Amino acid sequence: xxIDNFFRITGKMILYLGxxxxxxxxxxxxxxxxxxPPSGYCRFALFxxxxxxxxxxLLQLRRWAAAGASxxxxxxxxxxxxxxxxxxxxxxxALLLVIPACMTAAFWRSTIWRNNKTDRAD
Length: 122
Prior knowledge:
By secondary structure, the protein is mainly alpha-helical. The protein has helices at 3-32, 38-59, 63-84, 88-106. Helix 2 packs across helix 3.
């Protein structure tokens, strides 16, 4: 099924972005001398951990990962549109963030809850 590739590509992109953010987010403040409180690193680490979990889940076509990633994207789109005011770029970003969530809703049946092959509804 070709839509499986959409979820796998999205999972790979989330994994790559998580790794890049982890390297940049830890290395840049350290080498630039920027002081970051420990709570900032903890929140950042939780964010990266969530990205890695959702990325691996999407690679394996799990419904919980698709639902979680979609909810995170919808929340980010809401924040983007709410903070945009009269600036059009915030609304454009919100629209781009909602597209994968709509595709998840449209192709929900191509994902599975568990590793059980009978759970898949093709």
